[in-house]
Amino acid sequence: MSTAELACAYSALILADDGVEITADKIQSLITAANVADIEPIWTSLFAKALEGKDVKEILTNVGSGGGAAPAAAAAAGGAAAGGDAAAEAPKEEAKEEEKEESDEDMGFGLFD
């Protein structure tokens, strides 16, 4: 990362930590206060537009979640911990769905036909 990118990223993190709306002007004022030289205004506006309407703290806490796999696993674990039968039935339903799919061999098609 360049100095400009790092300065903007750190400024955005500071603003998010303080609960302040992230705007290009606020990022620029933090960079100026930190005496970081030669930051082009395009960087501050890019970071402000990229983070507009997003919760930075939420983004940081879900960095390694893998796109929703963790919440599904947590929900399954929560159901199993509660002792419900629904958690035991979920894997059976998935197995049935996999069995329903037909392969090429079932339809009479093969690699050497």
TrEMBL record:
Region (Disordered): 83-113
Alphabetized CDD domains for the sequence: Ribosomal_P1
Residues in the signal sequence: none
Organism this protein belongs to: Zasmidium cellare ATCC 36951
Name by which UniProt lists this protein: Large ribosomal subunit protein P1
Subunit structure: P1 and P2 exist as dimers at the large ribosomal subunit.
InterPro entries named in the record: P1/P2_N_sf (IPR038716), Ribosomal_P1/P2 (IPR027534)
Keyword presence, tRNA-binding: no
Protein role: Plays an important role in the elongation step of protein synthesis.
Any single GO CC term annotated in Swiss-Prot or TrEMBL for this entry: cytosolic large ribosomal subunit
Record flagged with keyword Ribonucleoprotein: yes
Annotated family: Belongs to the eukaryotic ribosomal protein P1/P2 family.
Domain of life of the organism encoding this protein: Eukaryota
A Gene Ontology molecular function term of the record: ribonucleoprotein complex binding
Keywords tagged on the record: Ribonucleoprotein, Ribosomal protein
GO biological process, one term: cytoplasmic translation
